[in-house]
Design goal:
By secondary structure, the chain is of the alpha/beta class. The chain has helices at about 20-30, 40-55, 70-85, 105-135, 155-175, 195-200, 205-215, 220-235, 260-270; strands at about 10-15, 35-40, 60-65, 90, 140-145, 180-190, 245. Strands 3-2-1-4-5-6-7 form a 7-stranded parallel β-sheet, with helices on both faces. Strand 2, helix 2 and strand 3 (about 60-65) form a beta-alpha-beta unit.
């Protein structure tokens, strides 16, 4: 019988005090990794670190930092290397949503979204890669979105950042492969998180809209994204690099209209 799949590995998960990032960090700990969690909020980092340390003592380091700052990105990576001796796995999960009509989108909101959602992933990857090269390998996982493959009104900054993140994934995967560094992207669809609740509260979409458009007929769970992250971080995915894997209940596979899904579901019901 084999042990935990990430035993002894060192992982950084940005934006990991809540939502998808928290569940990824928690799963990594369950699989034997030592994990650096991160948020811009000092209080969120303190609270989450304390909670996780009760479950897995001496395996969690919390670092309050803004991934939109190259200086803070280096701070996170150096803290991981100082505490745990290097970095094996990076999950670029930190991100912000931005819902605004494109004609009204301010330069500040545009630049903030790209800085956190895209530039931060590059800064973190660049800093971690130097440690991964010394260890002759590593796994970088970028948490993108189904909006990295298509467009959606009022999401100009967010879609641009997520499209860029997939392009970054493919470029780094090819450029760093000879060092044994694998780079992949996960593209969640509509997942039950606080961010989704906030976006839905703007009135831009309803739960009915999402359930009606998703072939599996439900929201995804953060745990389902975390399970894929564990796979991509570990040895069982050793020949996968440059991939963009959707976790979306069939959303990106479907090019029909909502009423058609309803008709298909109705046809399956017993008479």
């Amino acid at each position: 019988m084999t042990g935990p799949s990430l035993e002894g590995r060192v992982a950084i998960v940005t934006g990991s005090t809540k939502g998808i990032g928290f569940h990824i960090a928690q799963r990594f700990l369950e699989e034997g990794a030592r994990v650096v969690i991160n948020s811009r909020s000092v209080e969120d980092v303190r609270r989450t670190s304390k909670s996780l340390l009760r479950e897995v003592p001496k395996s969690v380091l919390g670092v309050a930092a803004d991934v939109g700052s190259v200086t803070d990105c280096r701070k996170i990576v150096e803290a991981a290397a100082s505490a745990f001796g290097g970095v094996d796995i990076l999950v670029n999960n930190a991100g912000v949503s931005m819902v605004a009509p494109s004609l009204d989108l301010s330069p500040e909101d545009w630049e903030r979204t790209l800085r956190i959602d895209l530039s931060g992933a590059f800064y973190m990857s660049q800093a971690c890669a130097r440690y991964m090269i010394a260890k002759e390998g590593g796994s970088i996982i970028n948490v993108s979105s189904i909006l990295g493959e298509g467009g959606l009104p009022k999401r100009a900054a967010y879609c641009a950042a997520k499209h860029g993140l997939i392009g970054l994934t493919r470029t780094l995967a090819t450029e760093w492969a000879h060092w044994g560094i694998r780079v992949n992207a996960i593209s969640p669809g509509y997942i039950r998180t606080a961010m989704d609740v906030r976006d839905g509260a703007t009135g831009d979409y309803t739960e009915f809209d999402i359930l009606g458009r998703t072939p599996l007929g439900r929201y995804g769970l953060p745990e389902e994204v975390a399970d894929l992250a564990v796979f991509l971080a570990g040895a069982t995915s050793s020949y996968i690099s440059g991939a963009d894997i959707p976790v979306d209940g069939g959303w990106t596979a479907y090019t029909g209209w909502d009423r058609l899904i309803g008709q298909l579901r109705e046809a399956r019901r017993p008479s």
